[in-house]
Amino acid sequence: MPLFERVTIVGVGLIGGSLGMALRARGLAREVVGVARAPETIVTARDRGAIDRGTVDPAFGVGGAELVVLATPPALVVPMARRVLPHLGRDAILTDVASVKAEIVRSVEALAPPGAAAFVGGHPMAGTEGRGIGAAAATLFDRAVYLLTPTERTPRGAVERMSALVRALGAVPVEMEPGEHDQAVARVSHLPYLIAAALMGVAQPGTPAAGAAGPAFLGATRVAGSPVELWAEICRLNRDAILSALGVFREELARFEGALASGTRFDALLETARQARLRLADARPAPGPAAGHTS
Amino acid sequence: MPLFERVTIVGVGLIGGSLGMALRARGLAREVVGVARAPETIVTARDRGAIDRGTVDPAFGVGGAELVVLATPPALVVPMARRVLPHLGRDAILTDVASVKAEIVRSVEALAPPGAAAFVGGHPMAGTEGRGIGAAAATLFDRAVYLLTPTERTPRGAVERMSALVRALGAVPVEMEPGEHDQAVARVSHLPYLIAAALMGVAQPGTPAAGAAGPAFLGATRVAGSPVELWAEICRLNRDAILSALGVFREELARFEGALASGTRFDALLETARQARLRLADARPAPGPAAGHTS
């Protein structure tokens, strides 16, 4: 049974397109409308089964929607919310998928007068190295953590409908305060990206280190090969939390370095890290095969 | 056509067992003999097709071998070389698979009198999170970089036979001076391991960060879940090179941090890292699918 009559997805790229495919494949919406800047994206999204119909006009596209998902790049979420909010019914739910939340949630809530559509910040922890509708897949959210960031202003009913949707997508809803969200993803997503990029500097092209790079190094640096534009924007939007996460990481790394240099408690530190990693993997089964690493 | 009449592998675990499987599957040795401490390992190795026959006695096992591969943990390579060298013919080749080389190569060369079997240090950049013969696979070396570390004492003919073997295994031989090897693998293997372990400290169990951890974080920290014993030993054996690699990494990370904080040249740094990563991936096609990462 559909959870929503009409869902409109603004931005049918990797995340928006995958969401449309999953909604349609699982019968969770009676109709999925797509909004894209380029008409050819609409054609591709329809061909790939991500939407029932599409439009280049956001105001028209969100008309009559029970749920509107802003799946644009992070910097466009607030401008797009400003554009579509006047066209939403008061029972509608507005959500986004941006990987930074505090500033976006504060700004969108400031836009919406009392009685306007409810805004529930969202962030599915899913993605691939691909981008755009061509990389979209109905299975993208399978077993993924899907963060929701309601505030005291968010109607509880809207949060519960979003949680039900996330579960129906096969994902795991986790609620977090927006600022807490930004600190958390700075640590587990944005920091690992910067580490991977910095790690490339220790194996400059043409050096013996680059010649020796095997699957472990390719795995450790994989995310550094992603398109820079989106990541640079995310890092700027979440700069303070990332700088703070970098500080924590630097201290952690110094503990390992000190233990290795002095020969004191080194194995115990490694074992603590190993136990934490095993607990985390148990809690969140990672899709896909294990990568090689011991060399 | 076999490249060797008899190959003896001392230590039929993940690497030794995989090597035996690959030698036999590709018909590269007329006979593969395994040496293991536990008789049940010999039975399993034979059952899995890694060896033709096995023994618990190293001196007996290496008798008549044209090639002897020491695939023991790194700390046992030198003691085992001392034990088997007197039993090798002068035309035999002795090699190992340890991921640290300078100290091992120096010590084994000091053991071997002029006219003894030739020692060629080796290090296949291949592995999985598994361990032991149960995790071995004939395909482990497919397209892997296989580092060889000859010195001025190493007969050129022995190096060339090893290179031919590596190529016949489907891997890519790369020659490096032993000290250069240790610096290189400190950067592309041992440092990424320590980074992964330290990264676990930014998402302590029970915190929002741990709750938000998705496939990107699981991928970035995967190697931290490996058995500690082998890694701790490797880190101790290559401590100085690892501490030096940590210093280089810290400087690289500081450059990204400074650029993010000041807003200067941040995108350019990320783009340089991205280009280096793409060139590396082109040079070394990684087996397996790409992992998720953008969240």
Description:
The structure is a homodimer of 295-residue chains. With 295 residues, chain A is α/β, with parallel strands linked by helices. The first copy, chain A, folds into two domains: 4-176, 3-Layer(aba) Sandwich (Rossmann fold); 181-283, 6-phosphogluconate dehydrogenase C-terminal like domain (6-phosphogluconate dehydrogenase C-terminal fold), CATH 1.10.3660. Chain A has helices at 14-25, 39-47, 58-61, 77-84, 102-111, 156-168, 178-199, 208-212, 215-221, 228-237, 239-262, 266-283, and strands at 4-10, 29-35, 53-55, 67-70, 93-96, 118-124, 145-149, 172-175. In chain A, strand 7 (145-149), helix 6 (156-168) and strand 8 (172-175) form a beta-alpha-beta unit. Chains A and B meet through helix 7, helix 8, helix 9, helix 10 and helix 11 of A and helix 7, helix 8, helix 9, helix 10 and helix 11 of B.
Topology diagram in text:
2 copies of one chain form a homodimer.
Chain A: E1 4-10, H1 14-25, E2 29-35, H2 39-47, E3 53-55, H3 58-61, E4 67-70, H4 77-84, E5 93-96, H5 102-111, E6 118-124, E7 145-149, H6 156-168, E8 172-175, H7 178-199, H8 208-212, H9 215-221, H10 228-237, H11 239-262, H12 266-283
Parallel strand pairs in A: 1-2, 1-4, 2-3, 4-5, 5-6, 7-8
Antiparallel strand pairs in A: 6-7
